[in-house]
Amino acid sequence: MDAYLSPWTDVAAAFARSHGLAILPFGACEQHGPHLPLGTDTITAQAVAAALADRLDATLLPPINYGDTWNNAGYPGTLSLSSATVTAIAVDLGEALAASGAGGLVIVNGDWGNRNPLYTATRSLIASGFPTITLDYPGMDAAIAEVRTSRAAAPGLAHAEEVETSLMLELAPDAVLMERAVSCYPEFPSDFGTAPMQLHRFSPSGVFGDPADATAGKGRAILEATVTASLAVLEDFIGGILRERNGAPHRPHESENAG
Ligand SMILES: [Zn+2]
Q1: What kind of architecture, by CATH, is found in domain 3-245?
Q2: How far lies 224's CA from each of 25, 115, 177, in Å?
Q3: How many angstroms does the Cα of residue 192 sit away from the middle of ligand 1?
Q4: Where are the domains of the chain?
Q5: How many angstroms does the Cα of residue 35 sit away from the middle of ligand 1?
Q6: What is the pLDDT of residues 144-184, one digit of tens each?
Q7: Which residues surround the ion ligand 1 when the cut-off is CB under 5 Å?
């Protein structure tokens, strides 16, 4: 169910039944070269979150369109939140969901810069007793390795190149301007990937790699593998919520006659 398009009464009923999960796509407003939209990360996270909501019969929440994108802040149009703001948004929404009777929260993170702040938020919500998990696209790296034909600009780096262009060709083809696509393989300093750094120093276009080999089919394969791996990761998380909601058989001393 898409919460944004549903009345509260339906969402309340969905939270009350089964695992009662809410799924939150957390994106970013971030440059993706001259040929992909600022919403690339949000669109991808939303697609994965929508597929999970569908497969799990969970409630899809409206996406967060902004994230911590400090490393891309040198490209105008990139609008970054601070780490503290990202953490606060996730914690506030988790607390609101708990108060609404949701069984738990799955955050689908679409942007690398959100990882640390969402980890902090997840830890805080778990500590307060609300089941929360953040998914950083499990299975995606393996799926990328299967389909990628171009060289990565740096190990693990996929930004506005073959991978992200393939994802957008599958999800939002009208927003992909292939005639503007350029290739860029920058020379990185030896501490790249270990120290915070802003990327505009290395690529004037904002592309890292080569988008030329992108296809919608590659994008579809990457998305399907990511959804499948996400479902596998969620299995125990959901099992724990269901056990808790159905009377926690792992605490047999708490019978109705106790106390
Ligand atoms: Zn991206």
Answers
A1: 3-Layer(aba) Sandwich (3.40)
A2: 16, 22, 24
A3: 18
A4: 3-245
A5: 12
A6: 999 999 999 998 888 999 999 999 999 999 999 999 999 99
A7: 40-41
